[in-house]
Amino acid sequence: VAAVDDTGIGAIAHNCPMLQKVNMSYCTRITDDSLKFLSTCQRLSELEHRGCPLVSSAGLAALAVGCRLISKLDIKKCNKIGDKG
């Protein structure tokens, strides 16, 4: 799992626009770019990305704009996500 990076998440988001659930927990190489890529998956309803230290409030904000159906979100141990996220 640690080998998954923004390039991989970008490819998944591009090729699976109807994606509904994603678990990227402890993928320590992903950044806000991954959440920006996933923001194009408008049917995304569940996202687990606990333990992703490079993800910040900016990435979460992009996701919130594009993915209005999110009903389950796990951001535990994502220390760069603050109140703005």
TrEMBL record:
It comes from the Eukaryota. One of its GO terms (cellular component) is SCF ubiquitin ligase complex. PANTHER family: F-BOX_LRR-REPEAT PROTEIN 3, PARTNER OF PAIRED, ISOFORM B-RELATED. The lineage of its organism: Eukaryota, Viridiplantae, Streptophyta, Embryophyta, Tracheophyta. It holds the Pfam family LRR_6. GO terms for biological process: SCF-dependent proteasomal ubiquitin-dependent protein catabolic process. This is COI1 F-box domain-containing protein. SMART domains: LRR_CC. InterPro entries: Leu-rich_rpt (IPR001611), Leu-rich_rpt_Cys-con_subtyp (IPR006553), LRR_dom_sf (IPR032675). It comes from Nymphaea colorata (pocket water lily).
